[in-house]
Design brief:
Pfam family, one: Methyltransf_29
CATH class of the domain at 196-229 and 273-372: Alpha Beta
Radius of gyration: 34 Å
Largest sheet: 7 strands, mixed
GO molecular function, one term: methyltransferase activity
Strand order of the largest sheet: 3-2-1-4-5-7-6
Number of strands: 7
Membrane topology: Single-pass membrane protein; Single-pass type II membrane protein
Strand content: 5-15%
Subcellular location: Endomembrane system; Membrane
Keywords: Glycoprotein, Methyltransferase, Signal-anchor, Transferase, Transmembrane
């Protein structure tokens, strides 16, 4: 108590002395004859630099100052990056993972600006699949086929696709006919593709006429859709005939899937499964996840994908999981709970055994599900 009173007395004496001294100087200056004002001395650069440094330091200390009402002192240490964030940045890149593959990146960026781009679509595909997306190359001119045809089909189910409109440099096959002979199930045989999504053969099938009837009965509407892993775009082509616009995500893995989609008059989105969907929130009525979505995808990446699908799907929209396959035990313990956490209404939920050799050996099953997102949350 005595110490506090002593400090207060010292402060009072200092204040009184300061005021008396100031009054003395003011009184003395009033009796001096007026003098011509002198030009102000220039402020040295060193002093200006020190003032700027002091100001910057004060601003920084102010930002770091403890917020009002907080009982803990402000911390100036750098926050630790959570380990799961580092993991997620590799599985679904937050920015770009190009720097993780310097040799591939150097090879891809070794080009002559303002000239034709190198013919290295396979290298671009490799970088994209490793998370380097969007690709950094900007200042070269894209290549075009040597003799493309100008008569492109309006019908999404033409008799054949024009091979002359594709650059085949990096493929072993040099035409769509070659791909059909190599494997008729790749999706390039349009006579075979025309029957897909139209008939009901097993409980795993959901024909488009039945889908349209379900939507109509729910007093809903389909206008815009997204086909994840859309192959050659057959689902989008069939929906186009119902006046529904569907864009398809594609990757040119061993074949020109993106070009095939475009040649059918449809829109290919050249993005990998781990990439954030380039669509705004809540804008599509339907998302279909085809057979590209299966148990071979890492669980964390699949979880990201479903959350991103939920992001772009509008309230009341539909998620169609088309013949997803996994082990039965994994479906029950892992994938069904993952899907169920979104709280979608089960319009269709069908499970059937995978009857090929691998399916019988591993106890695998197929799941086809049509789920409706809640109107509001």
């Amino acid at each position: 108590m005595g110490l506090t009173m002593g400090l207060n007395l010292v402060l009072l004496v200092a204040m009184v002395a300061t005021n008396i001294l100031a009054l003395y100087h003011l009184t003395a200056s009033s009796f001096q004859p007026p003098t011509s004002p002198k030009a102000p001395h220039p402020v040295p650069d060193v002093l200006l630099h020190q003032l700027h440094t002091i100001r910057a330091t004060v601003n920084k200390l102010t930002r770091l100052q403890q917020s009002p009402g907080s009982d803990t002192p402000a911390s100036t240490t750098k926050p630790t990056v959570p380990s799961d964030l580092l993991l997620y940045s590799h599985l679904a890149p937050i920015a770009s993972a190009c720097h993780n593959h310097p040799e591939l990146l150097h090879k891809y960026m070794s080009y002559i600006p303002f000239s034709l781009c190198p013919s290295d679509s396979d290298l671009a595909e490799t970088l994209i699949l490793r998370g380097c997306h969007p690709l950094p190359r900007r200042r070269c001119f894209s290549r075009t086929p040597q003799k493309p045809t100008s008569s492109l089909p309006h019908n999404p189910f033409p008799s054949s696709l024009p091979s002359s409109n594709v650059i085949w440099d990096k493929y072993s096959c040099k035409s769509f006919d070659c791909l059909n002979r190599l494997n008729p199930n790749m999706g390039f045989d349009l006579s075979q593709e025309s029957s897909k999504f139209m008939s009901y053969k097993t409980e795993l099938d959901l024909p488009i006429p039945q889908l349209m009837q379900i939507v109509k009965s729910a007093k809903s509407v389909l206008r815009l859709g997204l086909d994840v892993g859309g192959g050659t775009g057959t689902f989008a082509a069939r929906m186009k005939l119902h006046n529904v616009t569907v864009v398809s995500t594609t990757m040119n893995v061993a074949a020109p899937y993106s070009e095939a989609v475009a040649l059918r008059g449809l829109v290919p989105l050249h993005v990998p499964l781990q990439q954030r969907l380039p669509l705004f929130d809540g804008v599509v009525d339907l998302v279909r996840c085809g057979r590209a979505i299966n148990r071979w995808i890492p669980l964390t990446m699949m979880e990201f994908l479903f959350y991103d699908v939920d992001r772009v799907l509008r309230g009341g929209g539909y998620l169609w999981i088309d013949q997803f396959f996994s082990k039965r035990v994994d479906l029950e313990k892992v994938y069904a709970p993952l899907i169920g956490k979104f709280g979608y209404k089960k319009v269709k939920w069908a499970i059937a055994n995978k009857t090929d050799a691998a399916g019988l050996k591993n106890g695998e099953v197929y799941l086809t599900a049509l789920l409706q997102k809640p109107l509001s949350r």
